[in-house]
Amino acid sequence: MSLRGAVDAPQAVAPSAPLSFDPRNLEIKTRSVEQTLVPLVSQITTLVNFKEGYLSSGKRRSDRALRAALKVGSAVEAAIERFVAVGETIADENADIQPEMYDACHEARLAGASIANLNGCLVDESGSAIDKAVLVRAARQLLSSVTRVLLLADRVLVRHILRAEDKIAYSLTKLENTTNFTEFVKIFTEFGGEMVDLAHRSGDRQSDLKSEKRRTQMAVARTSLERLTMLLLTSNKTLLRHPDSESARQCRDGVFHQMRLALQLIGFCVTDGVMPFDASHYASPSNEEILDIGMQLTANAAIKQLMEMLEMVRMTCSVGTGVRERLISALDSLCEMTQDFTDSAYTPHHHREQILDFLEECRFEMTNLIQPEDHDEPLRSEGIEVSVERLSRRLKDLRKQLQIVAMEQMSEILRANEDQLILSSIKACSVSGDIDGVEKYLDKFREHGEHVQEVCRLLHHISLTDALHVATGHAERNLRALAPLTLLAGRTLCVHPSSRIARENVEVFCDTWAQCVNDVSRLAKETDAAASGRLAAEKHAYMSLPRPGDQQKMAKVGLEMKLLTSEVDAEAEKWDEYAENDIVKRAKAMSSMAYNMYLFTRGDGPLKTTHDLFTQAEFFAEQANKMYKTVREFSYEVPGSAEKSDLSTILEKIPIHCQQLQVLVKSPTVGKPATFSKVVITLTNYYSNLLETLQVDSVIQETKNLMNEIAKLVTACFVCATKYEIEFRGSSVSRQVLADGSEYAQRSSRESTLWRRTPSIRRTAPPPVTQHNEI
């Protein structure tokens, strides 16, 4: 948030009770406030350094240096004057912060004038030098007052977000109390506009927050609001259509409660460290749940706390009474956290035994560590160090075992893909009117939901970063809240089997559940990457490639290439009768390579570095050349026709694109030799990195062009094969060795080719398949 942004914000801020502002607590929560202070800090640092150099050398500085220092001081004063004018404008428009803002602006103006005056004295020839501490105190006062102004302006923006939330809360109350469908539609339309306004304001705030934990909480809350809005619409429509249905009412009320909890979380995040906020302003969380899930203890957090304590014991080489009690308490907390793993019915027996064995070993090592003090100090210190080392090793082994258990259970769920089967069956039965089928699959859904929630809880226990800790915790909460609501929606449909609105409500709840399970799948992948140490490496490898603008352009080209891979896969699927067809196999192999290159543009997938990308592009070009030879062999069997002409036209473009791609990947700036040449000097390194970024962009663009031609080529081959009844036989082409050792294909007769005409069976080309790809 910039100060100018605060001025541009809406002016209608409702006055409220004044809030005390502690000038000693100037903690900055947003990046924009930090960035606004950077130029001022730089200028003040220049002045202080100049003064220090002036005093230490004892020599008269050049006139040019003196004029430059004087110019910096005047610039600071002028900038502060403009800054203060904006701050006073904000104070005039917001009565609730007016006294504090005026006070902070007055202090900033005085400090800016003091800086300019002290800087002017540096060039005075009176001979008496000003103490550097005076300038430092003035600089500190200036920074403190400017930071206060920025934080007060930031408070205004926070109030605007809270006001947007209050409007939504008021609309929710009106929606909750309306019994007329026409009135409901009118209120819901206004509600939609208010949601868009909150989405924009909260999105800006989310990207501006410094805390990774708060950013993740904001993202979770905003995503929940977006999904719950659709559930709110259908559940309300269902209740209005069936006002006597208790299950419909409970379902609708549950959606309202979840929306208020999401509003509560946004309000908590935006006010953190800025202003007080009532934790039950919009909704009261249940007694067993805390609003700030980042403070919730997990198995990994318990292990981390215990290892930090052990590190302190290692440094002090002593275990006092207080330390002993804290260590025992931390180990007891860890044992309690692991019960979610050992008590789970889905944990295999050998894994459960392994976890219990590790815990027993931890207790044994802890007993050795906290035993009474020995009078032999050297031996006691050595024993403590050995016990700490052994206990740390056992804790790491335990953490690894917990990760294995959680990821195996998650993999089992994803491999079974049971949620898709159950949800699709529920929707299919509801559409066909099979209420018995709906009830049957709702029972299965209840069991499946409990299983997914349990596995998500295990993911929460092994999360290693703040973002994953928050995301997995809220994912479990969302699933736990959504499962009973989905069952209520299904029960309403069973009571009213002919209701179209009830059927639509069930389908929307099923779709929302599928989205939540997809979120869990993505979090499991990120958790596994973090646990294996791949997360930082992947991010570093990708973010070190392009500048932001280049990255966006590259991602766009990669997305287009991904769509082409889906198109090629769709065309290859038409050749189901020719599963061993070389064209099909090569097309699928090239599609897989292109998809890996697309994942690289997103910082994901098996390609980690530019060297991997260029190697993959080289293999891609080789496969395209092989495809060209295979299709050229196939074209000999196609009779002269418009189809053969189209096939030949497309075919002749393949070598051109292959050659261009091979030239790009064999450029001197590509590969390991280029990497070694780039470390000679910094300037060479800069230009080499720039060239490599351009090279990556060109390689991906050319791969996309080649993939486009491959898609057309596969389609043309299929058209010819179906129209002229050309069938693949599956044998290898006979070859003859040339004098230089190379080979060329030899066809002595029609029967020796990979392809043959099928005179008896007439096949018609199936209609084109339209693929809708969602990225």
Automatic annotation (TrEMBL):
One Gene Ontology cellular component annotation held by this UniProt entry: cell periphery
Keyword Disulfide bond assigned: no
Coiled-coil features, chain-numbered ranges: 381-408
Superkingdom as given in the UniProt entry: Eukaryota
GO biological process: cell adhesion; Rho protein signal transduction
Chain spans, region Disordered: 749-775
Molecular function terms from GO: actin filament binding; cadherin binding
UniProt keyword list: Coiled coil, Cytoplasm
Location in or out of the cell: Cytoplasm
UniProt family annotation: Belongs to the vinculin/alpha-catenin family.
Protein name from the UniProt record: Alpha-catulin
Organism from which the protein derives: Toxocara canis
